[in-house]
Amino acid sequence: MIHPQTRAILEALGQSVFVLDTERRILFANPAAEQSFGSGLEGRHFVAAVRHPECLRAIDEVLAGNSSTVRTEATVGTAPQTIYEVAVARLDGDGPGEAAVAVCLADISAIREAEQIRSDFVANVSHELRSPLTALAGLVETLQGPARDDPEARARFLGLMEAEASRMKRLISDLLSLSKVEARERVRPTRSVDIAALARHAAETLEKQAQEERKTLRLEIAPDVGRIPGDADELTQVLHNLIENAVKYGAPDTEVTVTLGKRDNAPGIVGRAVAIAVRDRGEGIPPEHLPRLTERFFRVDAGRSRDKGGTGLGLAIVKHIVRRHRGRLQIESTPGEGSTFTVLLPAEIRR
């Protein structure tokens, strides 16, 4: 039997806890265990709840008296998988039907996922920086050797070096922006901004680039769009990134449309929302790529993105800024017709 005070403590724990007898039957399962593995577990065999060889091996090792405590990891399920840190400890009582072992399963999926994200991030940054650095090293070597006395080659190689250095500068700048935004993501902005004025300024800033890319920028701003809670610098960055992407990837001699208007009952937004929609008339994006567009360094066409100066971080930055503003990012695209990126932002300050 389990002491009432011990039962109360185990029931209050956030981790899944089982108490088993010597036959591996479940004498007790706390609410967290029932939430994760189903109700009505008491009296059933442990394998009915958790079928994992490493977990069962740890239980058998403790029951056999080889160790008083065993720790291991168990991955349960398929899609999605849940990774548990498993701790098995021996309890007093060796008779049949008496408590023999306690099994605690702590969900560490988020920790492992964060570790994987960090590992992937470092690998991606290393790869992205290695390419321009390798190119720069090769160009320097050429300038020091065969092209030393060739003014025409020297001028061409210096231009290439400038382009690679600019690429690294953009990457580092975006990395710093992403780090700053992620650090402040849980802090909701409290100031208000004139979102229409920010949109006009972003469009004016990119007008020359649009002309060079043979695009026409058109703003459609509803008269009822006023001030909204937000950080002016961050929302300017969102507008700039989305409009610049539309300019880069839209088809030549087409229009990029930026629309601002109010919406009621916007998904995920409490109260009225302001919708900022940026539409291009480009090649569009295949449906299978849409869920990954906001991942760091993900590119539908890596070569084309690099040729246009992309770092693969712009939409990741947009995603985190929108999250900080308690907004939503929607992406719609039709191959052959173009794409629309819509940012939904709360129109009122809510605490």
Describe this structure in words.
Residues 124-349 form the Histidine kinase domain. Keywords: ATP-binding, Kinase, Membrane, Nucleotide-binding, Phosphoprotein, Transferase, Two-component regulatory system. It comes from Chelativorans composti. This is histidine kinase. Residues 2-38 form the PAS domain. The chain has 351 residues and is an alpha+beta fold. The chain folds into 3 domains: 4-107, PAS domain (Beta-Lactamase, 2-Layer Sandwich), CATH 3.30.450; 115-183, Helix Hairpins, CATH 1.10.287; 189-351, Heat Shock Protein 90, CATH 3.30.565.10. The chain has 10 helices and 12 strands. The protein has helices at residues 4-12, 31-37, 46-49, 53-63, 109-144, 151-183, 195-212, 232-249, 302-307, 314-324; strands at residues 16-20, 26-29, 69-76, 82-90, 101-107, 192-194, 215-221, 227-229, 254-263, 273-280, 328-334, 338-346. The strands form 3 sheets. It has a 5-stranded antiparallel β-sheet, sandwiched between helices. Strands 7-9-10-12-11 form a 5-stranded mixed β-sheet, covered by helices on one side. A hairpin with a 5-residue loop joins strand 1 and strand 2. Helix 6 runs parallel beside helix 10 (314-324) and helix 7 runs parallel beside helix 8 (232-249). The chain is extended and about 85 Å long. It starts with a helix and ends in a 5-residue tail after the last strand.
